[in-house]
């Protein structure tokens, strides 16, 4: 298993659409959390984006997870960062 950090940058022109899709997005995140795939997630306080930490087999699994997120087909964000992360404290 590997940890990955994902930073989303919200398309501010699509705020209404993002808010409409957000309940389905959060339900999906809850499913991932229950499955042990999502470690932490949340929006930035200025609502310009979000940070998510995943625990998955590899980048291919993470990209599949992202493709299935309701935010993806709604096109309400851009992927600002996707990188493997090596935690030193807190998650191992």
Automatic annotation (TrEMBL):
Pfam families recorded: YCII
* InterPro entries listed in its UniProt record: Dimeric_a/b-barrel, Sec-metab_biosynth-assoc, YCII
Source species: Kribbella antibiotica
Q: What name is this protein filed under?
A: YCII-related domain-containing protein
Task: Give all residue intervals belonging to the YCII-related domain.
Answer: 4-85
| PANTHER family linked | PROTEIN YCII
* Family per similarity comment: Belongs to the YciI family.
Q: Which domain of life is it from?
A: Bacteria
